[in-house]
Amino acid sequence: MPREYTRKGTTMRIIDAHVHTWTREIISQKDIEARRIAAQHNGKEPVLDSPITKLKDAMKESGVERAVVLPIDSGINQDMPLTLQEKTDWHTDEVEQFPEIRSFVGIDPRRGEKGIAELERAVLEKGCIGWKMYPPNGFYPDADEYYPYYEKAADLRIPIVVHTGFTSRFKHVKYARPVYVDKVAADFPRIRFVIAHVGTPWVDEALMVAAKNPNVSVDVSGWQIYAKGSPVKLFQMIADARLARVFPMRMIWGSDFPLFETVMCLSDWVRFFTNLRLPESMVELGYRQVTADDIEYVMWKNSARIFFGE
Ligand SMILES: [Zn+2]
Question: What is the value of pTM for the model shown?
Fold first, then answer.
């Protein structure tokens, strides 16, 4: 039996809206090197293999009922061992054994027509439930030439998760600002966009884009760093997101599993968020306290709506 989380008598159901799986067979040498650098930085060994079975074990252990895998297409700027189609198939084959885990398709829009064809194939034939974009690979998401991708995504009625904020050593943060989601979100009001990581460290920018576009949400994956080291930053982000009317209805919970496991394991991250309360000192200053209902939206209801159409 998975562990159950309750808060004021409410049993929390949990969707992890942002996870990754890989093995060393599908990542590039450059990625392996970047992982080594990042791991060294933390005095840890790099994780070169994290197949879906590892994710499944962590979900069971922590009571996470569903998860959404977000593959990244780095094939334009790196030599990848698999073609784009092979990579899509690798992920969809992996999730096939676990109906509670679904996959997005990762596509770099610089691939032109072939990328659009793959977006369509991934969704219609391979069961992918959305499109993951990774701008730090070298593109601005709002460039005119990518509009055919958004038209296709709107036709397919799929959500788009856009990575924003911090990236690894050989990718570029200048492309990763949340503001580059604003124009496309405004031009495609029917598409549901998710700004990953609340744009860290451009949190105000991410909240501004979400505040003005009702079709934009934010995910809190990666915030284990703050939960662990400086929770006041997380509390302030939640309070600011409430003022921007992004919390609770357009914030979704995620982990970026397994990337932050060494900082805070999945069960601890679940426990932290299900029990999240602002410090009394903030409430005394006028910030509204977080309720069990708020948390239920973040951990389950918003993702169920955005990703699973429920
Ligand atoms: Zn991620």
Answer: 0.95
